[in-house]
Design brief:
The chain is of the alpha+beta class. Helices cover 54% and strands 17% of the residues. Strands 1-3-2 form a 3-stranded antiparallel β-sheet. Helix 1 packs across helix 2. The chain is globular and about 40 Å long.
């Protein structure tokens, strides 16, 4: 089954960060995203991998 594709506002809500921070994470390739007809989408698995990586760093 395919990943759920999240919008930037959905990722903002889940991470509790602002729009600029989400785009910064995408720009620096810390958060994987794709473009669908010019709209930025983040696979839910990419968000999960980002969070897991942050948890490993914190441990």
């Amino acid at each position: 089954m395919a990943d759920e594709l999240l919008t930037v506002p959905e990722v903002m809500t889940r991470l509790k960060v602002g729009r600029t921070k989400v785009y910064d994470l995408i720009r620096t390739r810390r958060l994987v995203s794709i473009k669908v007809d010019g709209c930025r989408r983040i696979p839910s698995s990419a968000l999960g991998a980002f969070i897991a990586g942050q948890m490993e760093r914190a441990a």
